[in-house]
């Protein structure tokens, strides 16, 4: 059997191997928010559509994340699809210790008290239906309650460890 072009030396499973492989995978960028004593939120590239009937989504959140204690108890979450013009917003919600809901973030309280970010391509408010332990993360499954595909424009994408835009 002949080796395929581009195949290199294989590596044993590890966190570094997983990160290296997924740097090759382009993913849309979302921000997940929830209401607590103070609003919380984080940048997610793990957002997935799970089912149309009923409408379900999922995302992963690290249990060491500062957002996890609120998300572990939240009944509802906000899901925001970011546009290519929102690299700084994505970076703010990805940065540990950042004042994510500070003066540079424009948001309002939405349905079910969920923090909704302004100027996004689309948003959803979802009711959490399950939290599934998965290694150092939890997979949150939530049912869509309300939403709006409000904005036009192109999505923000995460690829090769950076936020970028789609090219034609």
Mean pLDDT: 92
Q: State the low-pLDDT regions, or none.
A: none
Computed Rg: 17 Å
Q: What's the count of strands?
A: 12
Structural class: mainly beta
Cα distance spanning the termini: 38 Å
Biggest sheet strand order reads 3-2-6-9-10-5-4
So what's the overall shape? Answer: globular
- Summed up, the helix count is 3
The percent of residues in helical segments reads 10-25%
Major sheet: 7 strands, antiparallel
Order of helices and strands: HEEEEEHEHEEEEEE
Our estimate of the beta-strand percent is 35-45%
Give a short summary of the structure.
By secondary structure, the chain is mainly beta.
Attribute tags:
168 residues, mainly beta, three-stranded antiparallel β-sheet, 3 helices, globular
Written description of the protein model:
The protein has 168 residues and is mainly beta. It has helices spanning 15-22, 68-71, 87-94; strands at residues 27-28, 30-34, 40-44, 48-51, 56-62, 76-81, 107-109, 115-117, 122-134, 137-148, 156-159, 162-165. It is built from three helices and twelve strands, in the order H-E-E-E-E-E-H-E-H-E-E-E-E-E-E. A seven-stranded antiparallel sheet has the order 3-2-6-9-10-5-4. The protein has a three-stranded antiparallel sheet with strand order 1-11-12, with helices on one face. A hairpin with a 4-residue loop joins strand 4 and strand 5 (56-62). It is globular and about 50 Å long. The mean pLDDT is 92.
């Amino acid at each position: 059997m002949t080796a395929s072009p581009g195949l290199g030396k294989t590596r044993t499973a590890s966190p570094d191997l997983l990160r290296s492989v997924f740097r090759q995978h382009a993913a849309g960028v979302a921000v997940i928010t929830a209401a607590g004593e103070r609003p919380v939120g984080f940048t997610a590239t793990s957002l997935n559509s799970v089912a149309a009937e009923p409408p379900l989504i999922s995302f992963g959140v690290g249990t060491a994340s500062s957002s996890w204690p609120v998300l572990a108890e939240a009944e509802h979450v906000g899901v925001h699809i970011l546009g290519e013009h929102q690299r700084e917003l994505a970076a703010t919600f990805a940065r540990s210790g950042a004042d994510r809901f500070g003066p540079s973030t424009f948001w309002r309280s939405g349905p079910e008290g969920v923090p909704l970010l302004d100027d996004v391509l689309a948003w959803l408010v979802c009711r959490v239906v399950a939290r599934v332990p998965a290694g150092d993360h939890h997979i949150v499954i939530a049912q869509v309650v309300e939403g709006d595909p409000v904005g036009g424009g192109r999505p923000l994408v995460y690829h090769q460890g950076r936020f970028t835009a789609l090219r034609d």
